[in-house]
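A student in our group prepared the protein record below, which I am reviewing. Here is the record exactly as it was handed to me.
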Amino acid sequence: MSTQQTAKTQYIEANGNKIAYRYFGKATGTPLLFMQHFRGGMDHWDPSLINPLALTRPILQLDNSGIGKSSGEVPDTFKGWAANAIGLIEALGLKEVDLLGFSMGGMAAQLVALDAPQLVRRLILAGTGPSAGEGVGRGPAWAFEALASATTHEEAEDAFLKTFYSHTPEKQALGKAWWKRINERTEDRSGYLGPEGTQHQINSVIAWLTPGTEGGSYDRLAELKIPVFVASGDDDLLVPTESSILLWRKIKTAHLHIYPDTGHGFLNEYAEMFAEHIRLFLDGERVI
C-alpha cells in the first residue's frame, strides 16, 4: 500500500484547472480529503499522522490551483479554495468525502461544507477559526510575516519551527523531528508556494478577517448539521485557541478537543493521538 512518502501524483481537470492530487490508502470506505495550511501543499503533511489513517480509509490530498504541481492561479478568497476542492470531488465522481482542513485550509474547508453540504459527511477543523466576527482573534503580526517572507528551505524551517512550536529546547527538538519527517519524500515533491502566490493567499486571509466581506463563515456556521470535530493546541500562536473554541460554540453539532502544552503544530506533536481521535470520530456510529 502506498504511503505519504510514496503515493503517486495524479492529475485531473477540475474547476477549469489541472489539479494535482494523490489518492492512496485503504481501497474501500469514505475518502478523507485534506486541505493544507498557508503556503503548503501535499508534501507538507506529517507521515506520522497520514500513514496510520491510510490503513483505515482512502486518503485524498490536493495541491490547490496555482500551488505545487497544479495549474492556474492561486485564489484570492477561501471561497475560491473551496470551489477547487469541490471541483476535485466532483471530477473524481465521489459521492461524498470526510474533510479535514488545517489552519487556512480549515477556513476553506468550512466553506466546502457550507457550499456543498451534500458532499461532506463529517468535518474536522484543525487549528483554524471562523471569519470576522465578535470574539475572533488574531495572532501576532511577526509570526505570520515570518512564514510569508521565507524564501529558502532554511528560512522556511526556521519560520515554521518558531510559529508551530514553542521555543523551549524540548519543543524545538520535536519540531526538528517533524521537519525531517515531512521531508522524507525526496522525489516528485511539491514545493512551498512562491512570493506571487503567497500574496494571493494573504489576500484570502485579509478578506476572511475583514468585517463585512462577503464569502465568510461566521454568520453561516449554524447551517452545519453534520458532525464536526474541532481541534487545537492550548497555546496556538497563529490562530488563537479562542477561535477554535468559538467555532465549537457556534456549531451545535461540534466536538472540541484542546491538546495540552502545544501550539499550531499540535497535529504533528500529537500525531498518533490525533490520528486515533480522527478515526474514532469518523468511524463512530453515534457522534452527535
